[in-house]
Amino acid sequence: MFGQSDHIALNLLEDNSTLRRQFRLKRQWKQLSKCQRSVIYLVGLIFTLTSLYFISVDSKGTIITVENAPGFTEKSVTLGNIRNDPRDVVEIGVEGNNDNQVLEDPEGAQVNNKVDSEQVAEPPKNLIYFPDPSTPRQKAVVQAFKHAWKGYKEFAWGHDQLKPISKSYHDWFGLGLTIVDSLDTMYMMNLKDEYNDARNWVDKHLNFDVNRDVNLFEVTIRVLGGLLSIYHFTKDDMYLKKATDLADRLLPCFDSESGIPFSDINLFTRKAHAPRWSPDSSTSEVTTIQLEFRYLSWLTDNSKYENVVSKVSQLVHMLEKTDGLVPIFINANNGQFRAYATITLGARGDSYYEYLLKQWIQSEKTLEYLKNDYLSSVNGIELHLAKRTVPNGLLFLGELVGGTKDFKPKMDHLTCFMPGTLALGAHNGLPSSHMKLAEELLTTCYQTYAKQPTFLAPEITYFNFQGENSNDMYIKSNDAHNLLRPEFLESLWYMYQLTGNTTYQDWGWQIFQGFENFTKVVHGYTSIGNVKNTANVQPKDMMESFFLGETLKYLYLLFSDDRKLLDLDKFVINTEAHPFPIGRGNI
Fold first, then answer.
1. Residue 366, Cβ neighbours under 10 Å: how many?
2. Where does Ca(2+) bind (predicted)?
3. Are 462 and 477 within 8 A, CB to CB?
4. Phi, psi (5° rounding) for residue 464?
5. Is the Cβ–Cβ distance between 386 and 460 less than 8 Å?
6. Strands (DSSP E) along 64-148, which ranges?
7. Terminal CA-to-CA distance of the chain, rounded, Å?
8. Which end of the chain has less neighbouring CB within 10 Å, N or C?
9. 36-46 per-position pLDDT tens digit
10. SS3 for 484?
11. Residue 445 class from Cβ within 10 Å (0-12 exposed, 13-18 middle, 19+ buried)?
């Protein structure tokens, strides 16, 4: 053990050793020439300046504020995720100093009294801002959204869909579909708290290492589309990174012999295959992924995403059709349509026609072959599918069963997207006769709602076109359900924006009241089994993600006094109501 004198002696030895080292360094320095000393001075100066730069500025050029300093913990930094003005809220909270209060300035902006204004990072440029709801009808839709969201958050948070009656959830793909599908709806409505909760979940919990099969089409339009849309509004890189990861996992679907993608894939193993129930993919599904993958290629400057989906469009373009009309099944191995498959603008056929037009618009009207295919298909619709009812002459679109053999007077609610698509085409310079067709189809779709005591349309309607009875339309018991679908409301919004006719707003309000009166339950909204009986609508205990992602979004846009709240001259809307910019130069 050391005594006190031993410690003193040891300290003296250490001090003496230090003095000798300092003397030796001083002597070596004097032995250097003036030139050598100057070089050392210059290197030291460069190192000091470089260090100061990287201490004060991060890798993206953002000034680092006090919360990055040693000894402090970042509490919250909000740089205007949702606001009407970039000045709105810059909130910086720092733990470790009681003087760092967040104060309200006269204009409502929150500022930190310990952080200089020049230290606060600027929001990204080219953000898209939306005003607060301005009409009573818009505000009613916002309240409906908040009611649905509250139930989802309480009983289904992080899961795909809410079951509001049993207070539980349903997982289809395990990807939080309701959250991702609703991001841009909340952003448009300026629901800041709800949006921030959703954004945080996506950041921390949306993980694509899911060892289960997912559908290429559904995941593309809902999840990839939702991430890309909210990225365009916010320029939040987190969303783009998630979208790119997802798209990379979906790409093996295109590794088929023909180039037509397989319908399903396991996101974890990245193994793709045809659906379990059939060797074929749905035609609408393989041709309704192009807007999303093309936009991702533009954002990432990587053509691989656009290349695979463009090849699909080109392959389908080369196939033989019935006056532009396509069967609803296509084989991924041989690249051919299934012989004698049904031709319809309803399920499995619908969005093929929609994306012919919208791809042409997205490309700033450069993809002429898609415009030509669209024009050909409208001609085929008029020749083969369009009929009129007896006795009132309502125009409807039926189906060709067994290829082109038998006409079936059946129209899915899904077909009610078509009036909006026809109107959009006419607005972009296609024949004006398309607008007349749109108006007549819109009236028929409205009647499928108005004829029901609930003022809600059935999933499928049949039409009397041969004078079998005195009713223009009728519903089979198995088709009387309503899934809270958006297609007719989508068309109402297109027609309202393009014509300014406020009758379309009134029609939408009647339907919204139907939802409120017959689908609203304590913890959200539910699909119903019977639109024909107000006393027993047979609730089905399911709130699909598209109710928040599409239905309420279209109602909100429809009820705005500003017809161009989401301008169709600047945006193309995917089939799940997610907006993308028109043209690569506008990304």
1. 11
2. 575
3. no
4. -90, 110
5. no
6. 73-79, 90-95, 102-104, 110-112
7. 74
8. N
9. 666 576 666 66
10. coil
11. buried
519 is in an annotated binding site: no
CA-wise closest residue to 263 among 210, 335, 316, 213: 213
User: Mapped to the 3 state alphabet, what secondary structure does 298-367 carry?
Assistant: HHHCCCHHHHHHHHHHHHHHHCCCECCECCCEEECCCCCECCCCCECCCCCCHHHHHHHHHHHHHCCCCC
Low-confidence spans in the chain with pLDDT less than 50: 1-20, 23, 55-120
Whether residue 197 lies inside any domain: the answer is yes
Which two tokens mark 366? 């450069």
Q: Which residues, in sequence order, are CB contacts of 373 under 8 Å at separation 6+?
A: 317, 324, 356
Q: Print burial letters for 148-173: b (CB count within 10 Å at least 16), e (below 16).
A: bbebbbebbbbbbbbbbbeeebbebb
What's the confidence (pLDDT) of residue 63? 32
**Active-site positions?**
218, 350, 459, 487
What pLDDT sits at residue 25? 53
Report yes or no on 507 lying in a domain.
Answer: yes
Residue 393: other Cβ atoms inside 10 A: 10
| Distance, CA of 452 to CA of 534 (rounded, Å) | 9
Residue 525's closest CA among 486, 490, 476, 557? 486
pLDDT of residue 277: 84
3-state secondary structure of 196: helix
Cβ contact 127:106 at 8 Å: no
Euclidean distance between CA atoms 543 and 521, whole angstroms: 11
Q: Domain for residue 242, yes or no?
A: yes
DSSP per-residue codes, 2-20: --HHHHHHHHHHHHHHHHH
Q: Which residue has the tokens 């930094």?
A: 77
Asked if 515 and 531 count as a contact pair (C-beta separation under 8 A), the reply is no
State the residue for tokens 């939040």: 236
Cα distances from 282 to residues 274, 413, 481, in angstroms, run 10, 18, 23
Query: Is residue 12 domain-resident?
Result: no
| β-strand pairing of 90-95 with 272-273 | unpaired
The structure tokens 């913990």 sit at 73
Here the tokens at position 84 are 């009407």
Q: Which residue has the tokens 């080219």?
A: 126
**Residue 221 CB neighbours (<10 A):** 25
Which domain range does residue 190 map to? Answer: 137-580
Nearest to 524 by CA among 536, 535, 533, 515: 515
Amino acid letter, 574: N
| Residue carrying the six token digits 């839709």 | 141
- Sequence-distant (6+) residues with CB within 8 A of 26 are none
CA distances from 367 to 173, 272, 431, 506 (A): 34, 29, 18, 37
**For residue 524, how many other CB atoms are within 10 A of its CB?**
27
Task: For Cα atoms 501, 502, 503, give the angle at the middle one, nearest 5 degrees.
Answer: 90
Residue type, 241: K
Q: What CATH code is carried by the domain that includes residue 379?
A: 1.50.10.10
| SS3 state of residue 460 | strand
- Span 510-568, pLDDT tens digits: 999 999 999 999 999 999 999 999 999 999 999 999 999 999 999 999 999 999 999 99
Indicate the helix (H) or strand (E) that contains 573. Answer: strand 571-573
Q: How many domains does the chain have?
A: 1
Tokens 């007719």, located at residue: 488
